[in-house]
Every structure is written in C-alpha cells, then in structure tokens.
C-alpha cells in the first residue's frame, strides 16, 4: 500500500471507508500497463454485463441493471499472483488497511475471500441502484488523466451521498447499502484511446 495513502473512517450515516492515493506511482505504472494489455485485446477479456453478475434484475422488464464491460480476474488468471493488479491489491486486505479501529463496522473486519472485477465504462454506460452480496465491497476508480468523461458518479442512493470518483481513490462499504453509477458521457475517440472510466471492484467476504 502506498505510504501516502490517506484512509478516512466514516460511521455516519452508515459505516464506510475512503482511501485516497491508494497506490504509489510504481504500482500505478504496472497497473496501467496491465489495463492497456486487456484493452488491446478487448474482445478476449471484456464481457457483456449479463456475464459479470447481477445484471438484469430490475423492476423494469427487459431493462439491464448495468451497461458496461468487464471481467472477473478469477476467469482470466488461475494464479492471482500472475496479475500485477491482483497481486498489488492484496495489501488492501491487510489488517493495517481494512481493519480500522475507529470504524463501527470495519473494526475487526478481515476478509479472506475476495473476488476482483474489472469494469470499464464508456459513453452511455451506467449501473442502476443495486446491492452487492458481500460483507464489504471496495470500488477503486482509475482512469488516464486528463479526465475525458463526465457523469459516471458513484452514489449511495438512499442517502444522496455522491462521489466524484477521483483517480486512485477507493470507497469501501457494506455491500447491502444500495449504490449506483450515473450515466457517463465521453467522446468515443477518447474511449478508443483508453480514457474510459475503470472501476476495480473488490468483493469481500468470509469463508
Ligand atoms: Fe455493486
């Protein structure tokens, strides 16, 4: 974990954590390289929303819960350590990072079953309000700067609590709190240059 990482503990209106400057520059460079590798072989890695869980469950018939492209790391890597992103991410789940003593929820939290989803949002993409079947979810936002997209805000819908999704920032929250990603707009040429909005989701549970 980056020594400069700042962790903020919030207990109101519900418990969540904010991590700023999650990774140092060396780690970010390795992650950029890996994300570019996936992007270069887009059709090989990225999947339709119906194949990356939870899409399709809305009150509106035939409506999709999310529109983005993504894949689970466990579908790509037999050994998680073969992915730099996955390997570097392990530090997030160390006691020093995730077990925050000031938190009413994360005080003794130590997940040992984690799955990682890489989601990429381009023009028109969104994720409607939903809950995750997790004890906690971490959403880490990554994108190439300067930022070339608008919208794509992360919101806790029941609390009107909204995040700008700054690069290299992560929010960690109990999955049962409803959240959404508002529709994003961007130029398709910028998307082709890999300026889209990445969210690395860490789904944390106990075995
Ligand atoms: Fe979610």
Radius of gyration: 16 Å
Give the overall shape.
globular
Mean pLDDT: 94
- The CATH topology assignment is Jelly Rolls
Number of helices: 5
CATH class: Mainly Beta
Distance between the terminal alpha carbons, to the nearest Å? 24 Å
Poorly predicted tracts of residues: none
Provide the structure class.
alpha+beta
Helix content: 10-25%
What would you note in describing this structure?
The chain has 5 helices and 14 strands. The model has no long low-confidence stretch (mean pLDDT 94). The strands form 3 sheets. Strands 1-2-11-7-14-5-4 form a 7-stranded antiparallel beta sheet, with no helix packed on it. A 5-stranded antiparallel beta sheet has the order 3-6-12-9-10, with no helix packed on it. The protein has a two-stranded antiparallel ribbon with strand order 8-13. With 207 residues, it is of the alpha+beta class. The longest helix is centred in the first third of the chain and has 16 residues, at 25-40. The protein starts with 5 loop residues before the first strand and ends with a strand. The structure holds fe (ii) ion. Residues 130, 132, 137, 179 line the site of fe (ii) ion (FE2).
Task: Please outline the helices and strands.
Blueprint: E1 6-10, E2 16-20, H1 25-40, H2 42-45, E3 66-67, E4 69-72, H3 84-89, H4 95-98, E5 113-121, E6 126-130, E7 136-142, E8 149-151, E9 154-156, E10 161-163, E11 169-173, E12 179-181, E13 184-186, H5 188-192, E14 197-205
């Amino acid at each position: 974990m980056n020594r400069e990482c700042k962790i903020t503990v919030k207990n109101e209106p519900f418990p969540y954590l904010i991590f700023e400057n999650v990774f140092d520059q060396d780690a970010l460079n390795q992650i950029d390289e890996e994300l570019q590798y996936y992007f270069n072989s887009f059709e090989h890695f990225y999947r339709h929303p119906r194949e990356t869980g939870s899409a399709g469950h809305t009150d509106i018939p035939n409506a999709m819960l999310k529109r983005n492209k993504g894949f689970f790391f466990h579908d790509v890597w037999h050994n998680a350590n073969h992915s730099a992103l996955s390997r570097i991410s392990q530090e997030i789940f160390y006691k020093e990072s995730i077990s925050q003593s000031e938190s009413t929820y994360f005080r003794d939290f130590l997940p040992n079953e984690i799955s990682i989803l890489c989601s990429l949002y381009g023009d028109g993409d969104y994720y409607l309000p939903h809950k995750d079947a997790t004890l906690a979810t971490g959403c880490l936002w990554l994108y190439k700067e300067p930022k070339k997209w608008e919208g794509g805000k992360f919101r806790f819908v029941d609390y009107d609590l909204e995040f700008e999704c700054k690069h290299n920032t992560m929010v960690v929250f109990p999955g049962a709190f409803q959240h959404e990603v508002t529709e994003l707009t961007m130029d398709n040429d910028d998307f082709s240059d890999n300026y889209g909005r990445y969210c690395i989701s860490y789904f944390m549970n106990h075995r």
